[in-house]
């Protein structure tokens, strides 16, 4: 599945449930905050080493995948509703970051 | 640019600056929270209508694209560091959501 | 109960459970993000009017009180662990805000 | 200054600037997310030890105090706008936590 297909599936999913009215930019930003908060909660009491190894615990791994998926789905949906090309925006930003933070041995 | 190319560029970017030690799962979750917070701040005082039209204001549009890019870049990096395939995780979740929330007219 | 008594109760609560090792500044900031995320999730799909009236629905009211309490408890605990006087810090900031944002009819 | 005086000052501050219309529950939850995001950003790249010692660095200390103050001010304002007594809500929650998580040596 490509990113474009995922964007289209999210669009169809919302349309089929009449959820488009809920998917306003402000609401989707709040939903994104909610999901990033859940991701934070999964990691908050882990030591740095436990966090690195989080996929070794099957239950925790499932939860981490699940929350990362939720963040991705709301981010994709927010960008789509606003008419922003996620990959193009990220590329523009990384191009800028290359100049702002020159590499160590250039 | 594809998502895979973006993942690779983020990886190279961190390596060229010796930032890999900073990019632990906990730190990246905090960075993601920080960027989603900045996105929240852009929308917090807008009315729902102003938020829908946010790309019509060139300065605000640039800021929104910028913050959405930052969220995307940290999300991609976090998934990469953990060894999670973002698209596969999102697809698994949307498959599950299709069952949890049946469409209106099925 | 005063704020100082609440701070002390949080301190005793952590000590009695041997949770002081978990209550590092970074972990508490993540816990705070997690609770603010849960608060966000309660409000994300509400219309502005529904959000204003959220205490009229007993179940929602209980959840909102609960999440606001959680945010308060982690904020108090974070400030205490860092040695920051929450009220003094807030007063300093509101004094500064008075100058940064002059009132309309002064 | 007491918490009640701080609540009143925030109320007067918003009224004197005609900002009450902006201070809806949803907007204040987003503002709270924004400030917790800024707090997260201050701590994201610190090691656990650097985070513990953050008040030793005068610039970082000022920023941490500032962001903790902002979180406090929006939390107080949100509770006030909703008509929630912050201390009472927190006390109810800590009472409940005492039962949910029994102490080690009771």
Summarize the structure.
4 copies of one chain form a homotetramer. In chain A, 74% of the residues lie in helices and 0% in strands.
Give an overview in words.
The structure is a homotetramer of 106-residue chains. With 106 residues, the first copy, chain A, is mainly alpha-helical. The first copy, chain A, has a single domain, classed as Orthogonal Bundle (Helix Hairpins). Helix content of chain A is 74%, strand content 0%. In chain A, helix 1 crosses helix 4 and helix 2 runs antiparallel to helix 4. The longest helix of chain A has 25 residues. Chain A is globular, with a radius of gyration of 17 Å. Chains A and C meet through helix 2 of A and helix 2 of C.
Largest interface: A-B, 59 and 59 residues
Q: Give me the number of helical elements of chain A.
A: 5
* Termini Cα gap of chain A: 37 Å
CATH class of chain A: Mainly Alpha
List SSEs of chain A in N-to-C order: HHHHH
Question: Helicity of chain A, in percent?
Answer: over 70%
What is the averaged pLDDT score of chain A?
A: 96
How much of the sequence of chain A is in beta strands? under 5%
Structural class of chain A: mainly alpha
Oligomeric nature of the chains: homotetramer
Per CATH, the architecture of chain A is Orthogonal Bundle
CATH topology of chain A: Helix Hairpins
Number of domain units of chain A: 1
- Low-confidence segments of chain A, given as residue ranges, are none
Find the count of extended strands of chain A (DSSP E, 2+ residues): 0
Q: Provide the gyration radius of chain A in Å.
A: 17 Å
What global shape of chain A is seen? globular
Task: Describe the main β-sheet of chain A briefly.
Answer: none
The CATH homologous superfamily of chain A is termed MazG-like
């Amino acid at each position: 599945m490509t990113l474009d297909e995922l964007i289209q599936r999210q669009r169809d999913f919302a349309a089929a449930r009449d959820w488009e009215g809920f998917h306003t930019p402000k609401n989707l930003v709040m939903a994104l905050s909610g999901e990033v908060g859940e991701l934070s909660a999964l990691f908050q009491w882990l030591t740095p080493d436990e966090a690195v190894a989080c996929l070794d615990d099957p239950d925790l791994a499932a939860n981490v995948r699940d929350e990362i998926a939720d963040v991705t789905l709301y981010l994709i949906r927010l960008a789509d509703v606003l008419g922003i090309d996620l990959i193009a925006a990220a590329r523009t930003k990384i191009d800028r970051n290359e100049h702002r933070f020159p590499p160590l041995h250039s």
